[in-house]
Amino acid sequence: RVNADRIAADLDAMSKITDPGRPWTRRAFSPRFDEGREWLARQFTEAGLIVSNDAGGNLLGRRPGGDPKRGTIMLGSHSDTVPDGGRFDGVAGVIVALEVARMLDERGIRLRHHLDVVDFLAEEVSVFGVSCIGSRGMAGVLPQDWLALTHEGRSLDQAIRDCGGVPEWQIPATNIRAFLELHIEQGRVLEAHGTDLGIVTAIAGITRIEIVLTGQPDHAGTTPMGTRADALVAAAALVTDIDAEAVRRAHGPDHFTATVGEFSIEPGAANVVPGRVRMLIDARSDNRDQMREFLGWSRQRLTKLPTKISADMRVLSDNRPTPMHADIINALEAASGKVGATHRRMVSGAGHDAAFMARLAPTAMLFVPSKDGRSHCPEEFSEIADIALGAEVMAEAVIAIDQE
Amino acid sequence: RVNADRIAADLDAMSKITDPGRPWTRRAFSPRFDEGREWLARQFTEAGLIVSNDAGGNLLGRRPGGDPKRGTIMLGSHSDTVPDGGRFDGVAGVIVALEVARMLDERGIRLRHHLDVVDFLAEEVSVFGVSCIGSRGMAGVLPQDWLALTHEGRSLDQAIRDCGGVPEWQIPATNIRAFLELHIEQGRVLEAHGTDLGIVTAIAGITRIEIVLTGQPDHAGTTPMGTRADALVAAAALVTDIDAEAVRRAHGPDHFTATVGEFSIEPGAANVVPGRVRMLIDARSDNRDQMREFLGWSRQRLTKLPTKISADMRVLSDNRPTPMHADIINALEAASGKVGATHRRMVSGAGHDAAFMARLAPTAMLFVPSKDGRSHCPEEFSEIADIALGAEVMAEAVIAIDQE
Ligand SMILES: NC(=O)NCCC(=O)O
Ligand SMILES: NC(=O)NCCC(=O)O
């Protein structure tokens, strides 16, 4: 069995590596991040793993396999955090991967495949404004124009090098038999159902749509109601309709969410009719058709604005859904059954490194419950018992995949 | 007749007294404002007026009357501007008042009353965050706790002193026979009706209501639509209903507007369900009952929020409507008829110094059309011919009031 106390101690140790006075902040490319990685590399070494960095700037710890030409089974996640984030998002999956390696040793289990424990570089949106640097790099799909992004005089190119990467080597990693990532759910679905673990069948695609409505900024006192072009009033009706359309789409079998998370008005003075509203829609689904239809619906909806209101719409980004691999889903499901964990299949609404790893290898994810669904905040919490149960399932799945 | 060219030249001269590179910015308590007042005082003197400052920090120019115990007829407005404002808001009324004095001289008309030309201090919201300093001071109703407000190390108390005022002298001015203020409309009603002038029957009261809706900030990807407490979605429905309620009330005989001019969400990140919305409602009417009913309606509406959304409501300010005086309305109307100007009675949706002067003296206002209703912006424009026509009406009304 895995050692829950050791997982707890490791998570506790990593939680102490945080920016002073800001629990918990260990942002990629910061001194604290480097400290965290040094600590991780030391644990990897103590666990007998061979430590290395790949071209993507990822930290790897290898437990060599008995039949190297079979390639590697890779487990892991990321150790960076958002500003003022939690103690589990990302790092729980790295510690669990390490624990699986240690537990296999302790049980004297020799695998045919290598087992690679990975800490991906900069999964969260970093100071460079982009995310999943390491997993994109490993998959050979890191946009090369991102390398010129700079923060405080340092380019992303240099920052990746400073983490041991070689950003111009856009060579997809090969011979990965499977990739498995344990992560906290960051939602309330497992908790609501009282289920131990979630087995991810797909990572939702994300479309980000920017809409700007333009009316006319008028004096709030002197402009009669009937003669206004109030951009906020038009935007309010739009938000209501976006929400209703999302609720309608979520009623079907597919995962669907649409959220207006950014919303600002101009000029924003008490006595001025709002002349302009900018909003950002975040629409997600595991079904590409749903995303395409929602985009079409949005475009159509903007043709029905009040005559005095004009609209600009821009698709800022559009990432397709990523189905997880049936073999790995099945392996996780069988392993859950074996260790006696209750589980349910679910879609990950959140983006993860696993979405990029799925381009390279059969991939799936395992979710552990998040208390109250809180994440990206200091209150983020998952039970050590749930994480340890997840580690158990990961170990069993690895053993099963190794033997196929 | 009044001299339209002289009015144009004066407005032009004042428009040149603006913060460098910022047309047109002459904010109260700034060096530019002092420059403007120096220029005005010089014109007052050249026109034979006796220049003084009152305890409220207002600049006055008196044309002595033949029968001093009858008191004074006061005309004027304010010379301060909002940041990046227009060339007419306020200062047009000061220049017109001066022109009336000059024109009476040129026509050799001796009045029984004094004629006072006034430039009120700081009508616009100044750097101290409050408005109508000078007219409140003249009426003896300047809130004494405002005097402690500070901006860049200077108190409002000191700032009023620096303009020649004595802020602790809360003595309402006496013996004012009538107060008349010409101002630009700042709306599109006169333009839409092709009417020369507006005669203000009341200045609307203003209620400012702050509403904060609190839901729960959740991950936009992982939180199913049905389990959210989205403060923006709740706020959108509220904005829609506020607008509909205002439109309904505006259909009656009363002036009514309600505007949500400030609206902000938290945390305001693309992938986070909005957990909090703050909005500010600006509701105006000439009928106190409408304002009271709207406040009650708002309170009632907040009891119908989705169960997961809570609301806080605060009335930040509540100023009652100010009816203008029938005698002065009638005098302006008769004068308009005499000079052949088309005119309509209307409610001022905007606040003005006249609202405070109405506590001291029979008061009314005259509006000249604003192009496209634009105000508080560089595009603000009124025709000199309309302003001159207004000046003519003001002069005739003064002569008539003097003879009553
Ligand atoms: N896992 C996670 O929080 N990803 C951040 C990107 C997103 O899904 O919004
Ligand atoms: N006249 C004018 O613009 N007053 C400002 C205060 C207001 O009415 O909102």
Beta-strand portion of chain A reads 15-25%
Assembly classification: homodimer
Query: Distance N terminus to C terminus of chain A?
Result: 22 Å
Structural class of chain A: alpha/beta
Helix content of chain A: 25-40%
The overall strand count of chain A is 15
Largest sheet of chain A, if any?
Answer: 9 strands, mixed
Mean pLDDT of chain A equals 97
Q: What's the helix count of chain A?
A: 11
Largest chain interface and its two residue counts?
Answer: A-B, 59 and 59 residues
Give the H and E element order of chain A: HHEEEHEHEEHEHEEHEEHEEHEHEH
Distinct small molecules bound, one entry per kind: N-(aminocarbonyl)-beta-alanine
Estimate the global geometry of chain A from the Cα principal axes.
elongated
Low-confidence blocks of residues of chain A: none
Taking all Cα atoms into account, the compactness measure Rg of chain A is: 23 Å
InterPro entries (chains A, B): Amidase_Cbmase, ArgE/DapE_CS, Bact_exopeptidase_dim_dom, Peptidase_M20, Peptidase_M20_dimer
Keywords (chains A, B): Hydrolase, Metal-binding, Zinc
GO molecular function (chains A, B): hydrolase activity, acting on carbon-nitrogen (but not peptide) bonds, in linear amidines; metal ion binding
Protein name (chains A, B): Zn-dependent hydrolase
How is this structure best summarized?
2 copies of one chain form a homodimer. By secondary structure, chain A is of the alpha/beta class.
